[in-house]
């Protein structure tokens, strides 16, 4: 069966742990494994802007011995010039895997239904599972075992990062607390999925509109931009002083309420003075540069995992 990574809970808890183990091993011996030698081609398609994702997938595929073919979504016009299903049938015959950053999750799911090769979510409006693998890898590097650890996410609770934190942290057996304005909560069905997973793994999931309660004593605090790609038209209101997000800014005053050495995570790009203070992202508790590097290792591991059909290479 062709395996895909469309959302964070496409990996079982055991699989997530094995992918993270492999990512850490790949980081420790960066050029040792070349499962795509041949080279096999991986199509990496962008319908939205990118820096880290293009770099880390391109470098990662070439380090695995494969050929990264970056496709400009504006040229391909998937779903405009031809249907997603037809594109999937064509691309799936040319390459070994498809990595796609796009808008609707339904587009990615349609691609996976019709492509004969693994499809990887490189960010949709709903999820960003590759980033979450990098985040979990970073927490493991700094703190060891993930199970039982706690993480607070602050800000836009309805965006891709928020929803991925719920699913991925629950899968890892972590306690995840999300603090957002009541107007920007995660989707109810995603919350239910995360709660079900947490019930199996021993983790827990909480949603609140009280940022102080969310960060109280946690091992890690994460945030993300208040203006996701595609929401540029709302930039002024989302970043205004009286925006509903303002009380959720990750400031030094809020960070002191977390555990003394709590890790600070941000997927980047970051907007200092809005969702995070400069003192926090540039301060001693920040691990954002490790997090950015770990995109490479985590994505190499997930590609190797999917291309082996879910058995480990
Ligand atoms: N929520 C952000 C994540 C960027 C990596 C966005 O979708 O733009």
From TrEMBL:
Q: What Gene Ontology molecular function terms does this protein carry?
A: amino acid binding; ornithine carbamoyltransferase activity
**Compartment(s) of residence:** Cytoplasm
Domain Aspartate/ornithine carbamoyltransferase Asp/Orn-binding per the UniProt entry, residue ranges: 148-306
**Short name of one Pfam family for this protein?**
OTCace_N
> Which residues participate in L-ornithine binding?
160, 224, 228-229
Q: Where does carbamoyl phosphate bind?
A: 77, 101, 128-131, 267-268, 295
Pathway(s) of this molecule: Amino-acid biosynthesis; L-arginine biosynthesis; L-arginine from L-ornithine and carbamoyl phosphate: step 1/3
Q: Which family does it belong to?
A: Belongs to the aspartate/ornithine carbamoyltransferase superfamily. OTCase family.
Write out the entry's keywords from A to Z. Answer: Cytoplasm, Transferase
Q: Which HAMAP family match?
A: OTCase
Its GO biological process annotations read:
citrulline biosynthetic process; L-arginine biosynthetic process via ornithine
**Name listed for the protein in its UniProt record:** Ornithine carbamoyltransferase
Query: Which E.C. number(s) belong to this protein?
Result: 2.1.3.3
Question: What reaction is this protein's catalytic activity?
Answer: carbamoyl phosphate + L-ornithine = L-citrulline + phosphate + H(+)
Residue ranges of the Aspartate/ornithine carbamoyltransferase carbamoyl-P binding domain?
A: 3-141
Highest taxon of source: Bacteria
| GO-annotated cellular components | cytoplasm
């Amino acid at each position: 069966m062709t395996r895909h990574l469309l959302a964070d809970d496409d990996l079982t808890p055991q699989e997530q742990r094995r992918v993270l183990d492999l990512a850490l091993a790949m980081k420790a011996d960066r050029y040792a494994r070349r499962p795509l030698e041949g080279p096999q081609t991986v199509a990496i398609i962008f319908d939205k802007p990118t820096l880290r994702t293009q770099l880390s997938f391109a470098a990662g595929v070439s380090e695995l011995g494969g050929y990264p073919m970056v496709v400009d979504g504006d040229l391909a016009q998937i779903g405009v010039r031809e249907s997603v299903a037809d594109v999937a049938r064509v691309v799936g015959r040319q390459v070994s895997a498809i990595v796609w950053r796009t808008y609707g999750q339904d587009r990615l799911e349609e691609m996976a239904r019709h492509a004969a090769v693994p499809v990887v979510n490189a960010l949709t409006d709903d999820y960003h599972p590759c980033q979450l693998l990098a985040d979990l890898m970073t927490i493991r590097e700094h703190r060891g075992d993930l199970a039982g650890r706690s993480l607070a996410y602050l800000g836009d609770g309805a965006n891709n990062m928020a929803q991925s934190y719920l699913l991925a942290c629950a899968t890892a057996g972590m306690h995840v607390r999300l603090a957002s304005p009541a107007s920007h909560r995660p989707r109810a069905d995603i919350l239910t999925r995360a709660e079900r997973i947490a019930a199996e793994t021993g983790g827990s999931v909480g949603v609140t509109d009280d940022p102080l309660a969310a960060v109280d004593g946690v091992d890690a605090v994460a945030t993300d931009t208040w203006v996701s790609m595609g929401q540029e038209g709302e930039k002024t209101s989302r970043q205004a002083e009286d925006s509903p997000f303002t009380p959720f800014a990750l400031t030094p005053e809020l960070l002191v309420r977390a555990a003394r050495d709590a890790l600070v995570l941000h997927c980047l790009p970051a907007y200092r003075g809005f969702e995070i203070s400069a003192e926090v992202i540039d301060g001693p508790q920040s691990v954002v540069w490790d997090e950015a590097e770990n995109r490479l290792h985590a994505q190499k591991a997930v590609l190797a995992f999917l291309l082996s059909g879910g058995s480990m290479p």
